[in-house]
C-alpha cells in the first residue's frame, strides 16, 4: 500500500507543478472525464447544502478555457501545499488526499488578490492503470472546529501553509 500512497502523493505534486508552471495540459491530465468539483460559497461553508457546482462536470475545452483565462490574467504569487493525510482503499484502486493549500493569485490589471486558502479533499480512482482525480472539494477553513473537526489525530486544524 505504501507504493499506492506514493502514487497518490505523486499526482498531488503533479497537479501542484501544473499550477506553479501554468501548464494547462499537465493540469487537465490529472482530471477524470467524470470529474466534478463542488465549491463552497465561503471558506466556512462546511454544510454541503451550501456548495455549488460552478464548473459542471469536467469538460477539457471548457475547463481549459477557464484556467487559461486565469493563467493569462493573473500572476501566481505563491502556491503552498502540504499533504496532511492519504487514504487508500483496501483494494488499492481508490484514494484520497487531504491537502492544506495556500494559493495566491494577483490579477495583473488591478492587483486584486484571489487566495485559495484552506483544506481540500482530492479523490482519485485508478483507471486502466492511471490515477485520475474524480472529485475535489473547494477549500474550507476548519480552524474554528479545532479537534472536533477531525477524528484523525494526525490531521491538525487548517493553518496557513509555510
Summary of the model, kept short:
Helices cover 25% and strands 38% of the residues.
Describe this structure in words.
This protein is α+β, with helices and mostly antiparallel strands and 162 residues long. The protein is built from three helices and seven strands; from the N terminus they run H-H-E-E-E-H-E-E-E-E. It has one domain: Nuclear Transport Factor 2, Chain: A (Roll), CATH 3.10.450.50. A five-stranded mixed beta sheet has the order 1-7-6-5-4. The chain has a two-stranded antiparallel ribbon with strand order 2-3. Mean pLDDT is 89; it is low at 151-162.
Which SSEs are present, and which pair or pack?
Elements: H1 2-21, H2 24-29, E1 31-36, E2 39-40, E3 51-52, H3 60-73, E4 74-88, E5 94-107, E6 113-127, E7 130-136
Parallel strand pairs: 1-7
Antiparallel strand pairs: 2-3, 4-5, 5-6, 6-7
How would you classify the helix and strand content by structural class? alpha+beta
Radius of gyration: 16 Å
Biggest sheet character: 5 strands, mixed
Distance between the termini: 28 Å
Amino acid at each position: 500500500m505504501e507504493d499506492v500512497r506514493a502514487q497518490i502523493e505523486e499526482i498531488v505534486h503533479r497537479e501542484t507543478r501544473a499550477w506553479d508552471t501554468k501548464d494547462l495540459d499537465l493540469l487537465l491530465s490529472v482530471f477524470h472525464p467524470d470529474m466534478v468539483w463542488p465549491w463552497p460559497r465561503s471558506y466556512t461553508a462546511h454544510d454541503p447544502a451550501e456548495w455549488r457546482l460552478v464548473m459542471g462536470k469536467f469538460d477539457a475545452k471548457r475547463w481549459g478555457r477557464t484556467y487559461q483565462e486565469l493563467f493569462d490574467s493573473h500572476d501566481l504569487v505563491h502556491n503552498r501545499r502540504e499533504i496532511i493525510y492519504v487514504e487508500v482503499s483496501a483494494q488499492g484502486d481508490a484514494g484520497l488526499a487531504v491537502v492544506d493549500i495556500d494559493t495566491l493569485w494577483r490579477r495583473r490589471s488591478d492587483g486584486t488578490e484571489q487566495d485559495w486558502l484552506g483544506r481540500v479533499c482530492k479523490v482519485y480512482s485508478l483507471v486502466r492503470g492511471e490515477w485520475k482525480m474524480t472529485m475535489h472539494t473547494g477549500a474550507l477553513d476548519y480552524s474554528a472546529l479545532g479537534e472536533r473537526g477531525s477524528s484523525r489525530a494526525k490531521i491538525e486544524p487548517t493553518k496557513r501553509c509555510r
